[in-house]
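Holo prediction. Input below; ligand is pyridoxal-5'-phosphate.
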Amino acid sequence: MSLFDFADGREGYYGDYGGTFLPEILATTVEELRLCFRKCKEDPTFWAEFVELMRTYSGRPTPVSYLENLSSKLGGARIYVKREDLNHTGSHKINNVMGQGLICKRLGKKRVIAETGAGQHGFATATMAARFGFDCKIYMGAVDVARQRPNVFWMENLGAEVIAVQDGQRTLKDAINECLRDWVTNMGDTHYVLGTACGPHPFPEMVSFFQAIIGKEARQQIIQEAGKLPDRVYACVGGGSNAIGIFQGFMDDNVELIGVEAGGHGPDSGLHASRLAYKDASVGVAQGFKTYFLQNDDGNMLETHSIAAGLDYIGINPILSDLWEKDRVRFEAATDEMVRDTLKLVMRTEGLIPALESTHAFALAVAEAPKMGKDEVILINQSGRGDKDIFTVADTIEDDHWKEFIKDKAVEYGA
Amino acid sequence: MVLEQYLRDRLQQKNLLLMTHVVCGYPSFDDNWRELEIMAEFGVDMVELQFPFSEPSADGPLFVKANQQAVADGVRPADCFEFMRKVSEHFPFKVLMMGYYNTAFKMGHETFITKLSAAGGCGYILPDLPVEEAGELHTLSKPKELAPIVLMTPTNTDARLKILGAAAEGFIYAVARKGVTGGQTEMGDDLKAFIAHCRQHTNLPIAVGFGVSQKADLDFLRGKADIAIIGTAALKAWENGGEDGLRTFFSGLLG
Ligand SMILES: Cc1ncc(COP(=O)(O)O)c(C=O)c1O
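Structure of the complex:
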């Protein structure tokens, strides 16, 4: 089953979702990008170049680890983890970014811009820009700048300019708006490195294309490590790029695919970012594409919340919206509370430190594994590592030693 | 077409028409009304009433603030239609809806067209709705004589301008430069060439917007374009000087 065999006149659509809804001024730029991407996709040497770059620069292939302690503690399915956290810069975001770096080179552009939520995508883009010699500007909501300072620190030191976006709710969606404003102004020399499988065509397809490397590797690896295909694959879903990345490896198999969204404070709290698992979202058109959005009856977007900055987004990958409606992907939500507990459990039993985003996938797997048989296999996509979340995690577990350290530092800096 | 004919009639008397813009409910509907009274005093020919949207990604800082404030104040599309009805009944100028596509999409195309028509609107400008996606709305607009306004931009290829020209009704909204609303536009040879280029692909009146803010800009556009679009500059004048500020602004613009 190919997700990208578009019907005539429906290029960029997945069922009813996707499309290109942009100001006319970008029509030529987006068309140029679409054609460049088509050429690259059809050229096998391009994929080979990408894989080689990821091997030598980012440590791919990332391994699949068996979580023996956790599996036996839960007493159900055998749990395996695809280790995207072991990429350079600590998450799957680098896959898409290095791929788009190669595209940007072919487009002959010298400047890149990107939005970022958790900062992982901005961090990866700043890294790519340094490596390829591009100028780089990162837009990040002011709320996210405040909660993800370690990534801001690295972006700036890698030579990127980080703009704290003060509009709207000052998170990921507002950073995307700001990127669109930059792009309509500077499209001549600038490529917009969108960080997830959202936005106007060809972005969902292009981001999925590069992230497919996760699923391609994982399918072979799990067969080797577990001796069989997984029964279930879990991935967290913010915009939906790591999920579509790993899911693509198992599209044609009898494997259940589970997307886990940010449940925040729960279903009726109004403080979450679950577009499909909860009932608050409806179909709309914003930020260049049609999909399910958390919006009110007037089509204005709602506030969203998650403990994980990278999942805190109003819209969702249009490919996933379609796969959900076709019952090919099941959607669930993990609340902030579940995520906190799961993180502690995974750290103590396995010595893994998943990003708060990725911990959502773990949380659902941990909840469901005990009800599964010992012969069954679970594969979790650990999309990133949790180092960046040190401030948030320290806050929620109220770590006294950490607080003392911060106070001492503050004194040292003359606060 | 009602709107096109209206514009052609006006163009018999004036060589450059004026279209202005207000963001509905910002700072308030009362302020909007007083702004519109001044605009009418100065003989403005058309007004775009922007329906506020939470993600105004094609707007510059001042309109972004206006959209967000209005949304935060609870301004809803129903309020905007109601306001539009009062405006179109009271004022001599023609009124258009301007906004983002999701506002129309969420209420449904038919509802949108019906309400717009009932409110006395003459057309609509949805800058994030490309012509490929506008087919159904355009079809529904025809029996109501509503003009779907198409934008032409300096980055469009000839092939694209041809498609845009074929889809357009009422008038063409020619975007004077790259970028978002607000900010400066250089009124020079490039713009002159761009307007001429648009003419090759349409017989409709051409309105030029983005960065049109002063008398010199209007002088430049006279003889080249048919309509000048004043957006951010008028809101800035209102914010800085209220009624007096806006009157002074229009006196300077048209003096
Ligand atoms: C580690 C990690 N996982 C997941 C995500 C969510 O993005 P996506 O759903 O596109 O994979 C992010 C986003 O910032 C992230 O940093």
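The mean pLDDT of chain B is 97. That is the main takeaway for now.
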